[in-house]
Design brief:
The structure holds 2 protein chains of 2 kinds. Chain A is α+β, with helices and mostly antiparallel strands. In chain A, 26% of the residues lie in helices and 30% in strands. Chain B folds into 2 domains: 116 residues, no CATH class; 79 residues, Arc Repressor Mutant, subunit A (Orthogonal Bundle), CATH 1.10.10. In chain B, helix 1 packs across helix 2 and helix 3 packs across helix 4. Classes of the chains: A alpha+beta, B mainly alpha.
Chain lengths: 238, 201
């Protein structure tokens, strides 16, 4: 997380934990009234809390009797050990944010963009679908005249990695056949997301898979990247 | 938040107060629309009761509008702070009182405030939230991280004790909470988008 979002996030957490002084709380609550972005964060936290309480209540209602009267802390842990939490499918939406600037990542491999020419850049929303094979991809992109550059906002997940790698594969019959684009040593930036820049010239009509992988610096060179996220994208004709 | 944002808010707020004082109905409507969502959140958080929060929201506006129409505000630019103060005091009063005296309300303004507690989809929305949270929890590879969320949001333990008990540092704690919140925010937006599509079709 960058410094601005760290400070804001800490302030939010302190407010939610009732750790602000009286004057701090008053100033914060005043801002809540006229800041939709701040309210989005707080309402997300509110729903998260509500959902966690409901999930905990459901688990408690269905837990075996011996788990309800266990060791200190065991009840808390056991609530989340249920295989029920291994969901078959989920849908996450990464919102296309209007930005006045974005981070440009170094690309070690193919780069067909002439850095000297101004390129129209489009930020596109992505949805991560974990399963439901055979269904149409939720993410779509229209290439237009094919000269645009696309910034795809990617979720870096919950684990802490030194950096991330994002790769774009062409799908054929549902299988990743050829890697068309890869950016390494990415770090989360704006809104703690990864910004993958892909030139339109790399893409063509068809289905693509975008893989996000994480790397830790203390791993040996032979260690494989951890798979963090996988997204599908359907590109329509220019 | 930048100084420009604060300055802009002060100007907007002062404009609303001036408009309400002049009897401008459009200004009243816009003011209610601008601040109701935030007020509703504050009242929901303080009362832990959606229906009560809606009642207090209407009461907040009733009090504020009478005051602004008749006498204005000493500091019009601090309208948001004034409204938040009323809401806070009402919530505190509600905690202390058993029988609450109702304030006369302006039915025209009240009609502008949607009563979300009566939404016929509330049960379905809550089930979807539960599903969204389960998906977030499933994405957490470590039980320790799931326990961070559970202890902070459900058991409302303080950050220091959670970090000490689970052996995590402050940075990791902040990261888990921040990313869980971002996931929930994305899930909310995705849900809203699907709802729009369903209405259109």
């Amino acid at each position: 997380m960058n410094n601005n979002h760290t400070d804001e996030s800490r302030l939010i957490e302190r407010y939610l934990a009732n750790e602000l002084s009286e004057s701090e709380r008053e100033a914060f609550e005043e801002r809540v009234l006229y800041s939709p972005a701040l309210l989005d964060e707080l309402e997300a936290a509110e729903r998260l809390q509500q959902g966690l309480q409901d999930v905990a209540a459901l688990e408690m209602a269905n837990a075996p009797a011996d788990q309800l009267t266990g060791r200190t802390g065991s009840t808390v842990v056991s609530l989340f050990q249920s295989p029920r939490y291994a969901m078959a499918a989920s849908v996450l939406l990464l919102v296309s944010l209007s930005m006045s600037s974005f981070l440009l990542q170094q690309n070690r491999q193919l780069s067909t963009v002439d850095a000297g020419l101004p390129v129209q850049t489009e930020i596109i929303p992505l949805v991560s679908v974990r399963s439901a094979s055979g269904s149409d991809p939720v993410n779509t992109l229209n290439l237009g005249d094919g000269t645009n550059q696309y910034v795809m906002m990617l979720d870096p997940g919950f684990e802490d990695y030194a950096h991330f790698r994002a790769s774009v594969y062409r799908l054929e019959a549902g299988e990743a056949k050829s890697m068309l684009w890869q950016v390494d040593e990415m770090i989360p930036g704006y809104e703690d997301m990864l910004a993958l820049t892909v030139p339109g010239s790399v893409l063509e009509a068809g289905d693509f898979e975008i893989r996000v992988e994480g790397w830790r610096d203390d791993w040996p060179a032979t260690h494989e990247h951890d798979r963090v996220n996988t997204l599908t994208l359907r590109v329509s004709d220019k | 938040m930048t100084d420009d944002t604060l300055k802009q808010e002060r100007e907007i707020a002062a404009g609303f107060v001036d408009g309400v004082r002049r009897g401008d109905g459009a200004a009243e409507t816009q003011m209610v629309e601008r601040y109701s969502r935030g007020l509703r959140y504050l009242l929901r958080r303080k009362t832990r009761n959606t229906q009560l929060a809606e009642d207090l929201l209407q009461e907040t506006w009733a009090i504020a509008l009478v005051k602004i129409r008749e006498k204005g505000l000493d500091n019009p630019g601090r309208l948001a702070g004034y409204l938040a103060g009323i809401a806070n005091n009402l919530a505190i009063g509600e905690q202390r009182r058993v029988n609450r005296q109702r304030t006369a309300v302006n039915s025209e303004i009240v009609a502008l405030i949607p009563d979300e507690s009566e939404s016929p989809f509330r049960q379905a929305a809550r089930a979807e939230i539960c599903k969204q949270v389960q998906e977030i929890l499933a994405d957490l590879k470590k039980e320790r991280d799931r326990e961070i969320l559970q202890r902070f949001y459900v058991r409302e333990e303080d950050k220091a004790s959670i970090c000490h008990r689970l052996g995590v540092d402050s940075v990791h704690f902040n990261r888990v909470l921040y990313r869980a919140r971002q996931r929930m925010k994305s899930a909310i937006l995705a849900s809203d988008r699907r709802s729009q599509f369903q209405v259109i079709s």
